[in-house]
Design brief:
Blueprint lengths: L4 E2 L3 E3 L5 E3 L7 E2 L10 E4 L2 E4 L4 E2 L1 E6 L13 E6 L13 H4 L12 E2 L2 H10 L4 E4 L8 H13 L3 E6 L5 H7 L5 E5 L5 H8 L4 H13 L2 E8 L7 H15 L5 E5 L13 H13 L5 E4 L15 E2 L6 E6 L2 E5 L20
Parallel strand pairs: 9-11, 11-12, 12-13, 13-14, 14-15, 15-16
Antiparallel strand pairs: 1-6, 2-3, 3-4, 5-6, 7-10, 8-9, 17-18, 18-19
Helix pairs in contact: 2-3, 7-8
């Protein structure tokens, strides 16, 4: 049977109301009601998580699929998710599970998988890390936190693939056990966040800066959506923010959008992604990657999936899709010019 688990990071108020401080929505939840994520419920003045130990997706993935290209490349990540999300992105690529509690026609069963089981299976399948992914780990925070603590105790790393909408309080709690994160920076316009996502931009920017300050290995992904965030000016602002506020060694993944959920805009043109790659390099980023383009040959000079030395341009990590065919990094450096290559466990 599912475990009844009291939530973390909330406060009790008068008249049996509660205030959730887990994500930047900071929902005021009356007795008998749920938060925006719909997986946290106030029951008689106590806030409970409704998804603790209830996995809706479990897979062993290449770490490159997260995508994390500079964190133990070539290793596997034991990947887990529950239903639910604190966003309502109109173009969500995982909408079948992220929006399952919001869309009444979506019915998904879950697998009871307590933290002990996740860690045991991660060890059995020789995964270097556990990734909390597919939906939003912030909304199953208690589940992720307990698993992450247990994972660390046996030498397994922890990874969040997140929209970055968590509060500073939540980040402070998970930080000792969180080794890496890929954060979706979905746009650089607050209006886009408000109208199409149901959130705000600034909390995401603050999370990114805080993660960097805390020493969590950080990579950033922007799903480039046609007629939403594909303007060159906006892409340049994203690249400049990463380069100047987070540092030029933070990898930026520009990913191709495909029509999904409630949008039918055409797939991102390859030319747009190529231009985004060029903009990232123009803004000083050392590592820019083009994703979701299997089988496409990039124009000469555009390094879509592979890692090159930012100083001498030597091919260091050659990737085909999510898989590595060669890794020439030695002791964290380029074997040709000895330039340090940013990352964790590169070789």
């Amino acid at each position: 049977m599912p475990q009844r688990r009291e939530a973390m990071v909330y406060e009790k108020l008068d008249e049996k109301a509660v205030r959730c401080h887990l994500c930047a929505h900071r929902c005021l939840i009356r007795d008998g009601r749920k938060g925006i994520c719909l997986v946290r419920e106030n029951q008689n003045g106590t806030l409970y998580t409704l998804v603790y130990g209830q996995a809706v997706a479990i897979h062993v993935d290449p770490i490159e699929k997260k995508p994390l290209y500079h964190f133990y490349p070539g290793t596997s990540a034991y990947s887990v998710a529950t239903v639910g999300c604190n966003y309502r992105c109109q173009w969500c690529q995982n909408w079948e599970i992220s929006q399952a509690v919001r869309e009444e026609h979506l019915l998904f069963g879950s697998l009871e998988a307590p933290p002990e089981r996740l860690v045991r299976e991660a060890r059995r399948t020789q995964c270097r890390s556990i990734a909390y992914t597919y939906t939003e780990p912030t909304i199953f925070f208690e589940y992720a936190y307990d698993t992450a603590r247990l994972a660390h105790s046996v030498g397994i790393a922890n990874v969040f693939v997140t929209n970055g909408y968590m509060t500073e309080e939540a980040l402070e709690i998970i930080q000792p056990y969180l080794d890496a994160a890929n954060v979706d920076l979905k746009a650089f316009r607050d209006e886009t966040y408000r109208k199409l996502i149901g959130a705000r931009l600034q909390p995401v920017l603050e999370t990114l800066k805080k993660m960097k300050e805390q020493g969590i290995w950080l990579e950033v992904t922007t799903l480039v959506v046609t007629n939403v965030n594909d303007d060159e000016g906006e892409l340049r602002e994203i690249a400049r923010f990463i380069s100047q506020e987070l540092g030029p060694d933070v990898p930026w993944h520009v990913s191709r959008y495909h029509p999904a959920f409630k949008t039918d805009e055409p797939p991102t043109p390859i030319t747009t992604l190529v231009r985004a790659w060029e903009i990232g390099r123009e803004e000083g980023l050392h590592y820019v990657y083009v994703g979701n383009v299997p089988g496409w040959a990039m124009p000469a000079g555009v390094r879509g999936e592979s890692t090159y030395c930012p100083r001498c341009n030597t091919l260091l990590i050659n990737r085909t899709g999510y898989f590595i065919t060669a890794n020439r990094v030695r002791n964290g450096a380029c074997p040709r010019c000895s330039t340090s290559i940013a990352g964790v466990g590169l070789g």
